[in-house]
Amino acid sequence: MLSRILIAAIVVTLSGSDVFSAEVSELAKGKVPDAALLKLAPKSGFITDTKTFAKLWKAWRPDQAVPEIDFTKDMVIVGTADGPNLVMFEPKLQGDGDLKFVVASTRMFGPGFGYRLVKIARQGVKSVNGKSIEEGIVQGTITIPDSTTVEQGETIEVKLFEFDPLLADAPAKLIDEKILTEIQHETGPSTEIPFALGSDLEVQKDCRYYITVFVLQGSDRTHIGEIEGKRGLNVVLQNGDRSPVNLILRPLKK
Question: Which domain of life is it from (predicted)?
Answer without folding.
Answer: Bacteria
